[in-house]
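Need the bound structure for uridine-5'-diphosphate, inputs here:
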Amino acid sequence: MSRIREYAPIVGEEVIDQLFKIAEKLEGKRIININSTAVGGGVAEILSRMIPLLNELGVDATWEVIKGTDEFFNITKTMHNALHGVNVSVTEEQLEYFLEINRQNAKNINLDGDVMFVHDPQPIALVEKRSQFNNKWLWRCHIDVSRPQEWAWNFLKPYVEKYDAAVFSAPAFAQQLPIDQFFISPSIDPLSDKNKDLSKEEIRAVFDKFGIDMNRPTITQVSRFDYLKDPVGVIEAYKHVKKHVDCQLVLAGGTATDDPESEKVLAEVREKAGSDPDIFILLLPPNSDFEINALQRGSTVILQKSIKEGFGLTVTEGLWKARPVVASAVGGITLQIKHKESGILTHTIEGTAYWIKQLIQNPEYANYLGKNGKEYVRNNFLITRHMKEYMLAFLSLFS
Ligand code: UDP
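Answer from helper R.:
Posting the output first, comments after.
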């Protein structure tokens, strides 16, 4: 049995057969994905799983990562925050530098794929070179750009318009554009180390390793240490809960090579946590998928208190583990969770604390939400659906 067939028990044999049929139509087409980091964050997470699976289906898909300096990633992080609507800006010289780094990368990366599939703003300006090639260019925007700082979108728009089409996670996150648009939501891989089933013993071993007591309620947020993930707000919510019920808090996250802010955020988180022995701040190295899986599975409540979010993979990861997820009603999260049906959506720290407490005290309701959440993910947010929609988007570029 080839690996792709292992997904059949989860999504059905027909889904896999259909994937092979669509893949056949892409024969001879080379798809080159480009992004800005090989590890850390949702885009790298998805690409690392999807490329080998597409290859197994017979699709010639590869993945390249642009190179940048600290200054470049400072600029792109500011741009990222501004696209999310945060009031920050960069100078003209910095925008020029952004373009310069893109131009340097254009010299070193093969831009001659039949489809150049460029992810997010960091490598967006590679498209300047498209006239040298006879191929199709597709821009994948993982960010909710519906309410950006004007300067950021005005800067990017001329580059976006050079593409044949753009992919957004949902219509609500998009912008008006004179090019074709596809709406494709991200996904998780149910068979990855991050999401596969684990035994109770495996889960317990990870809790033991970090000194977390599995017999007490545990609230967990897995996220890069990023202001937009609001880890300090998570600690505040936990402190409210703690006044009423016993619990522990796990904040687990590493850094991404294209994210320069994490150390500052981490320092603030440590200060806020103080010496509370029930707060576990786990700075995880890349490839901690098994540990993250176990932490999510062994938690009583999964939290995602983002201030802005394109689409929170961690929310879907928690739901797939049939855990009750409490998450902010922002961006794509509102599409990932149906409030009080497949999870809980909140707007404030107090609301977040209230629901965490409810779920700790009412395991039956927590299980109900978790079970529904898992089925919702099965039907909507698994990698097989995602691959199908990407392949159909690639094909449509040639029709
Ligand atoms: N993640 C991880 N290690 C960490 C922090 C996050 O592997 O230390 C993973 C997490 O499990 C999820 C992805 O990175 O798969 C984050 O994706 P999400 O969409 O939640 O947020 P992003 O980081 O892309 O903003």
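Comments: The first strand starts at residue 30 and ends at 35. The radius of gyration is 21 Å.
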